[in-house]
Specification:
By secondary structure, the chain is mostly helical. The chain is built from 25 helices and no strands. It binds one RNA strand of 16 nucleotides through α2, α4, α6, α8 and α10.
RNA sequence: GAUUCAUUUCCCUCAG
């Protein structure tokens, strides 16, 4: 994407300057084209006679660090110095961040001391980077100590500092302290931003503290004019959901609607699944229709949930009808879809139809998996069709499906219920021969 | 035109 642009510029006779190169390099880094970025860095001096500056080097060093290539980053820093380019505060901050990202906190601190010794002045970003690193490793005392050191050195905390601290305590499940920090922050005259609330509300949701979380949702707009985002809603819905407060989660969905930030399919699928689990498949289907109207794009999982919902109620014909309906609209059923319907037939006692379906899909080139066979074998055993179950057990191997412990458990369970102990023993030895553990 | 905080990996569908 970026390189063609560069050649295009050249072909029209535009001579890029250092700044332009840096922008191009940055774009390459963002596209995970760090090696092309390195190439371009070389080219700018060798081909174009341009001297990379602080910003250029820092950009590339940052790109390397994003790719976890810390040693390369350090080498480039040395090269930069030997080329007479003095690193800036940003350059050092990037390197400190590199150490922290790799979890090398002690080296980060050493590095900081080293560069301070050679006259470098750290800033809030430097401190915050390391503080964040400590928090990420759960080293709360060290984080606190460094924060104090930062303050006595005459640096005032800023919003990002507070966010880092709040996030740190959230990750440490210290929700009380995290929530307190927000108050301290406001008291101290600092403005919380969307990151502050995203961190805190998400943390509260994960700790099942839905009351405070919902209160903060209101507060963020009333007190600070902040607009909630997808992340926040996703966590709120997930949270109220865990507590089975579905009606409340539906209310949140309505709010989202008017905000235009639609959570991902995962959240939505969970909601539909909840209804299906509770035997309320109609409501799920109706919700799906409503949501499709407002721009939600159902995926394979979505349809599998609804199909399974019908099957679980014994309404397999409706499930297959839905499948036909959506197949016409470009939806591709997967193995789970097929397994779901096969299971539906089995549970309805229609094992004949289940086996037929397997044959049909295999003819169409569909690949069954272990679950397909386990489902069928279980269904056949329940109807006491043991010969056919056994036939499938042999067939599945031919079709590249390796029987697992569930397969054997199903068979063994059936055989022992029938008192066919010789069969049980044979199956047990078959299973151990395959390296499986009986359980 | 470059650096630190939330947002990629807690979690969605099928057999047992």
């Amino acid at each position: 994407m970026v390189e063609p642009l560069y050649y295009q510029m050249r072909s029209v006779g535009v001579k890029p300057d250092v700044k332009t190169f840096t922008i191009l390099i940055k774009a390459l880094c963002k596209d995970n084209e760090i090696d092309s970025a390195l190439g371009l860095l070389k080219q700018m001096s060798s081909v174009h006679g341009l001297v990379p500056n602080q910003v250029t080097y820092t950009t590339v060093i940052h790109g390397l660090i994003e790719e976890d290539r810390m040693e390369d980053a350090l080498n480039l820093w040395k090269l930069m110095e030997s080329n007479g380019c003095i690193p800036s505060t940003n350059t050092y901050n990037v390197l400190v961040h590199g150490y922290c990202q790799q979890g090398r906190l002690d080296e980060a601190v050493m590095f900081l001391e080293e560069i301070c010794g050679s006259g470098f002045c750290p800033d809030t970003v430097t401190f915050n980077t390391i503080v964040n690193g400590f928090f990420k490793q759960g080293r709360l005392e060290e984080a606190a100590k460094l924060l104090e050191e930062m303050c006595v050195s005459g640096f005032y905390p800023d919003t990002v500092n507070f966010n880092t601290i709040i996030n740190g305590f959230c990750k440490a499940k210290e929700m009380g302290i995290a929530a307190d920090m927000l108050y301290k922050m406001v008291e101290g005259g600092f403005k919380p931003n969307i990151a502050t609330y995203t961190t805190l509300i998400s943390g509260l949701c994960r700790s099942n503290q839905m009351g405070p979380a919902l209160r903060l949702l209101k507060q963020m707009s009333s007190d600070h004019g902040l607009v909630s985002n997808k992340e926040i809603y996703t966590n709120l819905i997930g949270g109220v959901f865990k507590q089975d407060r579905v009606e409340q989660s539906l209310e949140l969905w309505k709010e989202i609607d008017s905000n235009g930030c639609i959570p991902g399919n995962l959240t939505y699928n969970r909601l539909l699944h909840w209804f299906c689990r509770h035997g309320r498949v109609e409501e799920a289907a109706r919700l799906l229709e409503e949501m499709s109207g407002v721009g939600f794009c159902p995926d394979t999982v979505t349809f599998n949930i609804i199909i399974n919902g019908f099957c679980k109620k014994g309404r397999v014909s409706e499930a297959t009808r839905l499948l036909k309906e959506i197949s016409g609209t470009g939806f591709c059923p997967d193995t789970v879809t097929i397994n779901t319907i096969i299971n539906g037939f089995c549970k309805a006692g229609e094992t004949g139809k289940a086996v037929d379906l397997l044959e049909k899909i295999v003819e169409e080139g569909f690949k069954p998996n272990v679950v397909t066979y386990n489902t069928l074998i279980s269904g056949l055993c329940k109807r006491r069709k043991y010969q056919e179950a056994r036939r499938l057990l042999d067939e599945m191997v031919v079709r590249d499906c390796v029987p697992n412990i569930v397969t054997y458990n199903t068979m063994i369970h059936a055989m022992s219920k029938e008192g066919k102990m010789e069969e049980v023993i044979e199956l047990l030895s078959e299973l151990t021969k395959k390296g499986l553990e009986p359980n």
